[in-house]
């Protein structure tokens, strides 16, 4: 059977896996999921009901973008996106977790705006504060090196962060680029890669 990725075109977590698949040159059938009306076949293989979900050629099913990313890197290690050194790999996973946390906060803020729930000012402030704090952490790190783990190459941490910041631009605005010049430079450089350019989220008609 073909590899299958159940995804949503606008999902930052789905984009993470699409970039890795492209960089590893792995053929994969893409099945876009309507998140407002999830089909039974998707819910049968995704207990958490979220995208992405990856189905390997042998039928192995993996959900959660980080689990999928780690599986792809261990199974198809060229090019590698996780360091082989245990300590450096831990650092990579820590930055990836921060990036995913940033993405979750951005999604939650967008949903709050979508609902026009302006009575939740405390929650809104909490989300905005968290997003700004995390963006500042990335800004400081990228002042020290070209990528999050150094100057040599990008890793899964960069991919995750790129997708979260890209989702911020897509759902909210691009004003954050003015506040974080190091992140902006890193962000724009990575968008020169075909795998990144080809997965930029676009509005649905």
How would you describe this structure to a colleague?
- With 205 residues, the chain is α+β, with helices and mostly antiparallel strands.
- The chain folds into two domains: 4-75, Glutaredoxin, CATH 3.40.30.10; 86-197, Glutathione S-transferase Yfyf (Class Pi), Chain A, domain 2.
- Helices cover 56% and strands 7% of the residues.
- The chain has a four-stranded mixed beta sheet, with helices on one face.
- The longest helix is centred in the middle third of the chain and has 29 residues, at 86-114.
- It is globular, with a radius of gyration of 17 Å.
Question: What is the fold's blueprint, element by element?
Answer:
Elements: E1 4-7, H1 12-23, E2 29-32, H2 40-45, E3 53-55, E4 61-63, H3 65-75, H4 86-114, H5 121-142, H6 156-171, H7 176-179, H8 181-190, H9 194-197
Parallel strand pairs: 1-2
Antiparallel strand pairs: 1-3, 3-4
Helix pairs in contact: 1-3, 1-6, 4-5, 4-6, 5-8
Q: Main beta sheet: strand number and arrangement? A: 4 strands, mixed
- In spatial order, strands of the major sheet run 2-1-3-4
Query: What is the rounded distance between the termini?
Result: 32 Å
How many helices? 9
CATH architecture of the largest domain: Up-down Bundle
Cα gyration radius (Å): 17 Å
User: Which strand-content bin applies to the residues?
Assistant: 5-15%
Low-confidence stretches: none
- What is the CATH T-level topology of the largest domain? Glutathione S-transferase Yfyf (Class Pi), Chain A, domain 2
What's the assembly state of these chains?
Answer: single chain
Task: Tell me the overall shape.
Answer: globular
Protein structure class: alpha+beta
- Provide the residue-averaged pLDDT: 94
Order of helices and strands: EHEHEEHHHHHHH
Q: How many distinct folded domains?
A: 2
Helix percentage? 55-70%
């Amino acid at each position: 059977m073909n590899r299958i990725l159940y995804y949503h075109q606008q999902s930052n977590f789905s984009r993470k896996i699409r970039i890795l698949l492209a960089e590893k040159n792995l053929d994969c059938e893409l099945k876009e999921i309507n998140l407002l009306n999830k089909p039974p076949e998707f819910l049968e293989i995704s207990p958490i009901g979220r995208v992405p979900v990856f189905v390997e050629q042998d039928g192995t099913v993996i959900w959660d973008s980080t689990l999928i990313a780690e599986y792809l890197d261990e199974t198809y290690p060229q090019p590698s996106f996780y360091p082989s050194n245990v300590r450096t790999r831990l650092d990579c996973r820590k930055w990836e977790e921060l990036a995913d946390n940033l993405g979750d906060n951005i999604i939650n803020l967008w949903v709050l705006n979508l609902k026009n729930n302006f009575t939740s000012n405390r929650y809104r402030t909490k989300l905005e504060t968290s997003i700004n704090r995390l963006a500042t952490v990335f800004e400081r790190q990228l002042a020290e090196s070209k990528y999050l783990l150094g100057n040599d190459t990008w890793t899964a941490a960069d991919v995750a962060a790129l997708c979260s910041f890209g989702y911020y631009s897509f759902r909210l605005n691009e004003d954050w680029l003015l506040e974080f010049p190091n992140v902006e430079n890193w962000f724009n450089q990575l968008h020169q890669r075909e795998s990144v350019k080809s997965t930029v989220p676009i509005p649905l008609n």
